[in-house]
Predict the structure.
Amino acid sequence: MQYTISEFGFRMAHERTLTPDAHTFTRHAHPEYELLYFISGEADCIVDHLRHPMSPGELVLIPPMAYHLVALTGGGAYERIVIDFDDCGLPPEFLRRVFAEPRVINTPGSYEMRDVLARMDIYAQRFSGSTGKLLARNLTAELVCLIDTADAHSKSFSGFSRVMEEAMRYIDSHIATIGGIDELCAHLYISRAYLHRLFQTSLGISPMRYIMDKRLLLAQRRLRLGEKPTQVCAVCGFGDYSAFYRAYKSYFGITPGEEVSQRKAKE
């Protein structure tokens, strides 16, 4: 079974890749919350500086704006359910608490979660259009509420090197003010060349690309929360609005103003 249910701020997909290879999936980030339910295959899930070898039945919580990737470690079909969503009607403070950090949930230990995941497939076959979308959002909200009480079924990730972890933490906590690579190197007491190798080896991108991506994702999130483009430009660390405008359109395919218009059209 494969399907996709999609609308603004929400996407649920049951996908099966029969002959995946190492280049099928790339590291990416987005402003939505993500749930990744692993059904079959041989793969590790990488979220920012953390890594976890996946087992069937595990559910990964991925916070907004976290770089993540499914790294295939063997052959065979890779099957999963992926849900990206803005809020599904849940309170923002509740979602921030549940998705405070990446987590792995062992769903075989919870009948209630297995039931919700099974109903996702059943309802996707039975309902379409606005009804199917409403049910998909409601099931997602129900699943998140169950996850909130699932500490007994949680597992932890392992990490990258201490230096890489500290680099990412520093960038994330100074995203609007960091002056550039030299500031980061001074904080870590390492050379520019070593920092570049760290990011290329761990994430496949340069440190400046990581900083810019994080700023743009933060900008999109703030725009969707109703802030004005000029305000977002300033608080996200862009030097001037024209640079922000060009970078935003290049990354997302739409301008900051069009992002605001889409949000208003949804309301």
Summary: The chain has a mean pLDDT of 89. The longest strand covers residues 10-17.
